[in-house]
Design a protein that fits this description.
Number of helices: 2
Shape: globular
Order of helices and strands: EEEEEHEH
Strand content: 25-35%
Structural class: alpha+beta
Distance between the termini: 27 Å
Length: about 100
């Protein structure tokens, strides 16, 4: 699947126009950053590269399931490796039932 610019999504960075509306969710214990794209209802992980860019990890996208709250999705994402830290945005959603 190609990214929004027609290029391979493997080369996508968090600074690409397709990710302008993303919210930082937090950092997993393994060190990956997690972001949420509200326009597509998708969570994705990034790796911090040597050029100080956050590169989207191929295959890391996870869609928000129908009926699932953002808080539930954030909990599920952290179940495997745990969260090292959560953003204020993520903490607010963990405490609410907002969909």
């Amino acid at each position: 699947m190609n990214g929004p610019d027609g290029n391979d999504p493997d080369s996508s960075t968090i600074h690409d126009p397709a990710h302008q509306s993303t919210e930082h969710v937090g950092i997993l214990s393994q060190g990956s950053n997690v972001f949420y794209d509200p326009e597509r209802s998708v969570f994705f992980r990034t790796e911090h590269g040597s050029d100080d860019e956050h590169t989207v990890v191929p295959g890391s996208e996870r869609e928000l399931s129908p009926g699932e709250t953002l808080g539930e999705a954030i909990e599920t994402l952290g179940e495997k490796t745990g969260w090292e830290s959560l953003s204020e945005w993520a903490e607010e959603h963990l405490e609410s039932d907002e969909r």
